[in-house]
């Protein structure tokens, strides 16, 4: 039975999980068959809990780019959050215009091409220094010793954070992600709030230090950013700083960690990259498509909208399953094939519309540095699958990827 019946109204959609229940199913380890089933049998799906789900590329592009949607209900509430929590939430990714536009415009001053171009040599130097030492043993944890290394180097340089704090911050950020899924993971909210409180104390100290002694880092630029007399308040600075850590550290660890697992499973593609380092950019894009660390995003529909013949009513909460859209055979040829030379439609992993990932260029830069740097040094990656572990994160972030490898001569 499919989710849609003969009529084109939402009243005739049969609610169901269709093999994807986030409360009971493992959606991190090899979830693609499940999402393919959802995309094929119930592409416009109403869950038993009343949330809508989209899994086709065209429908998700329509939602993110061409529909009247927001991150909040029209009354200002974030889905599944109280009014108090909604009013206190000021991270731009959870805001709608005009507040979103104001915050993004101020923060975007820290993500100019010139700032990122200046950052790349710093990141490359840290990565080279660390890898020259760590690969000598012929084994490492590709998550803790490598995937964390590159985004930590960039975020620490960008925010002026001590590189030695990277493990602590990574742990806190992982736990904090569950604040985004209050309804699905109520048992983890205590740990998530505790992590956020510790991150807030850490970030507040940095902000006060930058106000007293501004430097050239991006946090200083955010502190000093001003547009027609408008500056970020302390609370706004605090939440943008924490949000950037979560977005810039956690998800990029996932991009690089999941990418290295792809390269281990598809050694011909790793050898192709080693022989053609100029493919690092397209390799990063293919990793984002093939094994995204953020499998879905949420929007609130602000007006009745037709998706593929089904009218979804205004004020509905819609989950857009990016991971399913990224393997939609209507868009990607042989979508279950990992191919770093692929040159097709843009993947969905950075979202779309006004909330298109502000740090997309930074994430790609980090991945390019990571993949090109490691491919120059090692070959014949063998994963210890028995000891692979996911990080304690809402997202698909590897926590441990033990591996052995040979060194390139």
From TrEMBL:
CDD domains per the UniProt record, alphabetical: CYP164-like
Family the entry assigns: Belongs to the cytochrome P450 family.
Top-rank taxon: Bacteria
Ranges of compositional bias, category Polar residues: 1-13
Record-given protein name: Cytochrome P450
Pfam families found in the cross-reference section: p450
Named cofactor requirement(s): heme
PROSITE patterns membership: CYTOCHROME_P450
Taxonomic source organism: Candidatus Litorirhabdus singularis
Lineage: Bacteria, Pseudomonadati, Pseudomonadota, Gammaproteobacteria, Cellvibrionales
